[in-house]
């Protein structure tokens, strides 16, 4: 009973915060808004810790029977197992830190109460997504975070560009969600259930490469492509930077964008049965990782660099999943949550100090003015670059190790992507915090470190970015891989259907050391190159008006993907919509208007018969009676 209550409280507590601040956001005192909004996530995190400490095995809690049609039943139920516990710790832990940070960042905003309410609602739907015991409850959370992302990205809705960015995120996510929904329908038809336990138990009896399973996994992956920003449904994510910085951290780090990864790992049995889908996933993942990383090399907006970094890192996560390295993919989800949340919140601290300036060409030398932000940002940069012994090194190395066993070409491309990651992150660090200050004198006078509500989350995340990798240290380095051991039961059915894929690694320790050395070496080499360019030679990015070489121009304009989509999708659809509008206006409206005109004119003429003369009315009655009699007796003959 106590466990059921804890499980129920986890999503309920943020929901209560949303209801209080959402209904009373104009009336709740400003000092109370942040406390109410943060209390829910913190209490939910405490409940998750209690569940984690007392966890002995999977627990399923049925709240009520929701949909029943004959023998088909969909309960509204929660499932707490090893995978959902890891995700709950990440979502509530990092989510709570972002809520605390938001108190300092958004306190003086006119919509402060509404913003905190939306954050709570976002967290509630993300918890539903993670905790659901079936695909339908997951889909409710899936759609809910999509709605909240729309509300949060377009939060400053007086700016048309921000509204367009929110609409773009909403529409592109709906494209992916259609694939996810069709996948759920196919699961219903194939297995007669949407409950994870029932679906996976039945699926384990299917042969590898079964066409039905392949179709299901491809459709589910389309959903993951939309939510987790993979080619071709990735362009909404960089535009999502229109939202306040805490939103960027919440969407990009620990919650929404990792939903696709979670869904694939949750459905690992189905994907293990579908090697074709995994191959397609691997190709899309490495293409996404490289494309986004290459764009990040030349961006000058501090948040845009981090946005493309997120897209690239999501590609790495899917790359790990594509070679059935499910634990390594989840490991990178965890470490990425730490250092990417830290990077976004650090960027927010910089933007806060720079009076909302986001162009790194107008920064420089900020480490003297923002020491806490600088040191924590440095830690996160080292972590994401994959330099040992920080968190990103262990998770990225584990992914690359699995990829090396599977496909050497993919591994080479992955290492190239890793080099680019290190370069653009240290480029960002050096241009922002080193050299001379390039902003206005007025801005320099007002530079200051952020308040404690913003710096304390930075310090906590910095510690996690340092130690986060030690949760899954490889055996070659004398570790015990605690995360892999904890998650192992989640993959029991996958091991059953494809034992060869889950056997012992074929790599010797010397080969593992070599792979670690190469990935670390290229990251450090990229660091050195960035240092030479931006510290020693003091190279600065060019102004937007300067003509760039062809390659640099293509990268700076993001391969013109948005323009391509606009030309081949947006404009034709708008043209078709205009044609339908014209058809409706001139044909349908014309018919309606002509009919109305005819009735009006006829009634106008008939109205003239009403003269008010009794003699005329008697005459009309006599004529009418005569006509009726004539029709009755003479027409039939």
UniProtKB/TrEMBL annotation:
Q: Does the keyword Transmembrane helix apply?
A: yes
Matches recorded under InterPro entries: NADHpl_OxRdtase_5_subgr, ND/Mrp_TM, NU5C-like, Proton_antipo_N
Keywords, A to Z, come to: Membrane, Transmembrane, Transmembrane helix
Lipid bilayer topology: Multi-pass membrane protein
> Which spans are transmembrane here?
6-25, 32-52, 83-103, 115-133, 139-157, 178-196, 208-226, 247-265, 277-298, 305-327, 333-351, 372-391, 411-434, 455-473, 513-534, 614-635
Location relative to the cell: Endomembrane system; Membrane
Name this polypeptide is given: NADH-quinone oxidoreductase subunit L
Q: Which gene encodes it?
A: nuoL
